[in-house]
Amino acid sequence: MKSVICLLIAAGFGALLQFEGVPHGLLLGSIVVTAVFASKTGIAPATPYGLGYIQVTLGIATGLMFEAWDSATASALLPSLGVLQICLTAQIALAGWWLTRGAGWNRTDALLAVYPGALAAVFDLLESEKASSKVIIVHLMRLLLITALVSLLIPGHAAIAVADGDPLTTGVALTACAVIALSVLLGRLLLMIGVPAPFMLTAIIVTAVFVKSGWLHGFHMPDWSLNLAALILGVRIGSRFQGLGFTELARHGRTALVSVGLMIVVAAVFAEVAAGWLDNDPLSLWLAYMPGAIETIAIVAFGGGLNVVFILTHHLSRMVLLHFAPALWVQVRRVKEEI
């Protein structure tokens, strides 16, 4: 019951901020309400299947944009993906240096804190059962800072996806249901082998295939579905304050803010430098090189009318690379030790 009350208050406050013209007010408002609720009551609102819904919804909305996708557009991505790898290396190195040298952290905690990928994969890799509270605070600060920064700097009044589509027919509706079902099924298979953001990945690919085949002509994502995704995402972010006291946040907050700030600044520098060379929008490049928060970036990019396909392709590449690269590195080391 308390979870339902929190969700209703979060939706109401977020809708009020949106009505008052606050960019992405629904997302930011739900974060604030849920964070206060979780920190005061110690209860995190339940959002069963929430992350799956967010990923499928944003994945389908992104996949619909592949209707104008061609080989020339895809080839233009490759140089930027190369810059992304260099940018990630610089982000991890600089933020890690600050935590070890400036804050006196040990290397293991610093690695866990600056890793811009799936944190659970790192825990398994390092055989760590539970991260220290200061590591969790760094990741929470990264999520909150990126969310607040991009939400406030990027307008949220653009139309979403293909807003002026044809009337929805029964055939298109059934095809859309098939896309959802197939995305969930394939996503669960990828989830079993540890692929990060699996439902978003499968939804993007399946939708793109259906769009290119002409089976989803006239279909567009309704506004309410993306608003619901923003609400659920805000609640999930805010609920991470559960169990974190003000004393802990104050003690490690400055260190977290500096390390995350360094990573965001590095992304901005690379985006500005690469903009002229790649002949692309610096803002889109900055969002593409952000160290995490893929669902937040997707929602903000949709609302800001940016090139969502370009941005999310970078984030999915980052997640897949950072998820599997450490595991391969450990396996190589084990083989060398056995030899």
Automatic annotation (TrEMBL):
The UniProt record lists the keyword Phosphoprotein: no
Coiled-coil segments on the chain, per record: none
Transmembrane segments: 51-69, 76-98, 140-162, 168-191, 198-218, 224-243, 255-277, 289-312
InterPro entries in the cross-refs: AbrB_dup (IPR017516), AbrB_fam (IPR007820)
Keywords recorded for this protein, A-Z: Membrane, Transmembrane, Transmembrane helix
Name of this chain's protein: AbrB family transcriptional regulator
